Structures are given as structure tokens and as C-alpha cells.
Amino acid sequence: MATKARLTAEDLWQMPDDGVPRELVNGEIIEMPLPAPPHGRLVSLISYYLVDHVKEHGGGEVVAGDVRLILNLSYDPERVRGADVAFISTERLPGGKLPEKFLPGAPDLVVEVLSPSNTSIEIQQRFAIFSKPGRALSGSSRIRPGAPLSIERTERRACCEKTMSWTERTCSRA
After folding, report:
1. What's the whole-model pTM score?
2. Which of 24, 55, 56, 67 has the most crowded Cβ, counting Cβ within 10 A?
């Protein structure tokens, strides 16, 4: 009986870019669904506020759009997952800059925008991986379009509360 070869992060990297998001789980490539426009809009809005904060205060890099992270799990050392939005502190960036291929380890902050198709189990599994003991993760957030979003800028004590819904074209103050 033949066994399936376990694929690596490098195998995933070498795949042609055909626009289909892929992750690597237990040595197998998993194709992910493309996000819907409301999902992308919310990812953009969250990224905008985080980038604005980092521009003003420094400290790292904000990335968005299912950026690939290699999560060195004991049972799956080359697990590659995508994050909707992530912040990585400068200290944790290899050589102080973003790598060309994959970000190593869990970021300091992960924001995952939930889609209506996400099951409870999928959500729990994704966040369990990002928040394993020993990871540098200092915060995570699960946001579903249509739910209130609160982003606090601690240095200024200013809070920007926005309410977003699937049908709104612009955000309105809560």
C-alpha cells in the first residue's frame, strides 16, 4: 500500500499562483474559499486602522490578505495558515523586515474576519493554533461582518466605534 508524500511549506510556495488561497495542514494542501466582498471590505478597514496606528507609533508591520504564516507545531512542524490581518513586532521580524515567503510563527496580533460559512469547530481550531502556550501572540480577535467593531488607540485613549453590516457601503459611527 502506497503512502501519500507529506508536502512541505516549500512545496506550497512552489505552486503556481492561480488566485486560489491554499494552506498546508498535516502535510496536505487545503484550498480555501475566496472571501466575499463584505469580508474583504472589513479586512481593509481593520488594516487601515492598524496601519495608521503603526505609522504613528512604530513597532512593527501590519499585513493583510491571508498572509502565510508557518506555525511550528509539535505535531505539524510546517503548518501554513493564512491570517486576515496580522501585526508582527519589529523584534520578531527576521532581520527587522518582512520575509519574502512566509512569516515564521504566530504573529503578535491576529484578526480573523468570520464568514457565514465558518463552523464553530473551524473557528475554535484556528484560534487554538494561534494561541498555543509559548507563542508570542498577545491578542486575537474574531469579527463577524454585521457586528460592532471597536478599535481603541491606547496612547490617545481615543476609541473609534464603527458598526458594519453586510449591506452598508460606508461605515457609520455607532
Report:
1. 0.73
2. 24
